[in-house]
Structures are given as structure tokens and as C-alpha cells.
Amino acid sequence: MIILLSSVGRRPYLVTWFKEALEKSGMSGVVIATDSDPLSPSRAVADRFIQAKKVADPEYQHWLAKVLIEEDVNLAISINDFELSEWAQLPDTPQWAPLIRFSAATQTLVEDKFAMGEVLSRAGLKVPFTWLGSDDSIHMSDISSFITKGRFGSASRGLHFADRSGILKAITAASEEVTDRRGVMASQQNAFNVLDLVLVQERIFGQEFGMDVISDFSGNYVGVLARKKISMRGGETDRAESVSPEPFEEIARQIAAVIPHPGTIDVDIIVDDNSIPYVIDINPRFGGGYPFSHLAGADIPRAYISWNNGKDIDSNWLKYEPGVVSGKFVEAIRISEPTTYPEEIL
Prior knowledge:
It is built from nine helices and 14 strands. By secondary structure, the chain is an alpha+beta fold. It has three domains: 2-101, Rossmann fold (3-Layer(aba) Sandwich), CATH 3.40.50.20; 129-202; 206-327, ATP-grasp fold, B domain (D-amino Acid Aminotransferase, Chain A, domain 1), CATH 3.30.470. The protein has a six-stranded antiparallel β-sheet. It has a four-stranded parallel β-sheet with strand order 3-2-1-4.
């Protein structure tokens, strides 16, 4: 079995866990890592590494098709929001069959945080009050604490906290950092109201949780993994404690119904002081919180391999031990062999 993990760059643990999943499944196979950075840390642990074209490159689709064919890929998974947006727009033909992706309509909805919030609200899920940065009614609300982020955000671009007196300054700062749905900086959008790329939300105070909502490759809900966030670093969960999934089952099923999807999606929840859960973000991929559930006993890579081979999964792969605290840490890894440089640059 040939597995392609695309844009996996700084997440070599995913490469390792898919390699281990193949071994546990009694299958021979190869895990290929790709990234636009030729010195990606994942290169060091993958069976093979292929330097990728950037998603915005006109040759990207040709490059992807060439890799899928030449490497005879059976299963392709991306960790990058903008790449997944590109995948969703590709035609439903056998050429692209290995790609794990949303339908074009669902992907378009999920990557637009403003539209996604409206759909979740209509489905009965609680979301914070939300505006676009261009909406003057923000300044007439009685809300006292706000948060800004990118409407098509990734990697915490445009993230700022502000009170009523500072919200205009926060919106302005965010407009210089956010991107459109293709990852192009808002500051380069001459014909676009850049403030429409800024999302402004009521800031919800409470305990933040992360969830992985899991569906099979036909989009049928199968379970949820949950953890309590302890600390963040660079916009990603840095330390977390695994918690029982039971309190999150209902909301996970609701989300899966609103967003039919294959595999796992990453969801951020804040439970306020009145025990009301608010959905604050959804990412259509393996998120930065999944490792905390894996280290507590879950094994979603193994489920992916089984589903891809038309087999049922073992329910134990979605089970884990509550109360396990895990943390990320800085580690260095040798990526390449020694290089000989010409004398003139030494």
C-alpha cells in the first residue's frame, strides 16, 4: 500500500504513526512525505520524500497527478488548508480517487468561517456573535470583549483580542495579516474590501476543548475524540489532557450531520461558565490536537488504512484513556547527508 502525506512538513509524527499503522495491520507499504520545503523535517522519517509544488503554482495540478500515477498512490492525505481547498475543486474522476477530501460545496462552506458560523447556528449549535470587519454595527453592540481572526484563516493569522475601545485598531491590524481563500494576502487584494476578510467575534470565556469528529470514508459518523486544552503555542495546542468523549457525543453528531466528511475534522469548543458549549473553529483535516488523543490510545491512521481497503475498523481504535496529559516539545532531527560546497562560497 502506498500512502502519500502531503504538506506534512513539521509533523513527522504523522508519518511515523502511518508507518506503524501499516505494520500493525500486517501490511507492507510505503509512506511518502511531500512538502514544498525540501528540508522538511518529515523527510527524515518518511520512506520517501518528494518536494512539492506550491499550491498557487500553475503547475501544481500537473505535479500532483504525476506523483499519484508514478508512485501508484492508494491513499493521499493533506495537512494543509489551502491544498485541501484545491483538492476539493478537482473533478470526481479516477485520477483523483486516492485523495481524501470534502466535496467542493462542503469545502467552500467550511473554509469560510463566517458562512460556517451561520450554518451551524441554523442547525441549533451555539456559536459566538459574529461580524465581518466591514460591518459598522460592531460598534453599536453591547458586547465588551472581542476577538479577530481571518475569515479564511489558517495558522492564527489575524488573531487579536480587544475591548470596545480597541476593536477598530484590532480590525485594522488583522486586515494586514489575513488572506483570501487561496492564501493570498489581503493587502494584495486591490479590488477587494480587505475588511471583509476579517472576522470579528464575541469573545467567549471558559474552558477550551479540542475534538476530532470522526466519520468513515462514506461520511458516516463513527465517533469523537476529545481533550481539554491546557496551553497554546503559536496558535496550536501545546499541552492537553484527554477527556471522556461522552459529553461531546451529541455536538459531534450534530457537526457531522452539518458537515458530511470523510475521516477526521478538527473542532475547537469553548464551554462557558454556564456549561454552554460554543463552536469556535473547524478545520477539515488532521489538526494540531490529534496527537494528544493518539498518545492516549486512539489510532486514526489505522482506521484510515482499513477504510481505504474496504474493511471495518476495530472500535478500540477510537478509544483512549481519559486523564492523560501530553505536551509538545522542541526536537532536532538530521534531515540530509553532508553537502560539499564549492570553495568560492566557503
